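Please fill in the sequence for the structure shown.

STRUCTURE ENCODING:
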């Protein structure tokens, strides 16, 4: 049992290292630099190691997106709880989303512009995605009209934030 637990911890640590290496490569160079081979070289493992954890680049990108959503949820929570008032909370989370995207464009791309095999807006979505959405839901719910579903309004708010950042940044050829 102890050997199995140790192996599980080691596997989880390797997976974390692969995801971190991929994220750093994407931020430093671009997502084109991320292959299953490059993160392996960065963490000093052979190329088959990432393939034993992920089916390919798309799966690595999805793992980076999940990690990014966890980071975003934490930052949104901090921004939301640092202010008082509905308008202030809306402004704080909007500014946090924009700042997050501006400081981590490759991570933001993994989360919102790359096609990743992740369920969004469902109970099957990974916890970090639900947590990030939940932070937005908390600030949007007080402004909704009676009879208006908070989920749709929150999804619209989030889509506006994503498109605001995406449309406003320079496009690469």
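FILLED IN BY: designer on duty
SEQUENCE:
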């Amino acid at each position: 049992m102890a050997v199995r637990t140790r192996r599980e911890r080691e596997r989880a640590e390797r997976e974390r290292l692969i995801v971190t290496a991929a994220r750093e490569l994407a931020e430093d160079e671009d997502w084109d630099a991320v292959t299953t081979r490059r993160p392996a070289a960065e963490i000093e493992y052979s190329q088959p190691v990432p393939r034993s954890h992920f089916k390919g680049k798309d799966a690595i990108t999805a793992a980076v997106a999940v990690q990014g959503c966890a980071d975003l949820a934490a930052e949104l929570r901090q921004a939301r709880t640092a202010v008082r008032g509905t308008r202030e909370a809306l402004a704080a989370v909007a500014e946090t989303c924009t700042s997050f995207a501006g400081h981590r464009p490759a991570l933001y791309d993994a989360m919102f512009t790359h096609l990743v095999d992740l369920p969004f807006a469902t109970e099957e979505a990974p916890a970090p995605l639900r947590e990030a959405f939940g932070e937005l839901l908390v600030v949007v719910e007080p402004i909704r009209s009676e009879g208006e579903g908070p989920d749709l309004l929150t999804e619209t708010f989030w889509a506006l934030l994503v498109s605001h950042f995406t449309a406003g940044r320079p496009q690469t050829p």
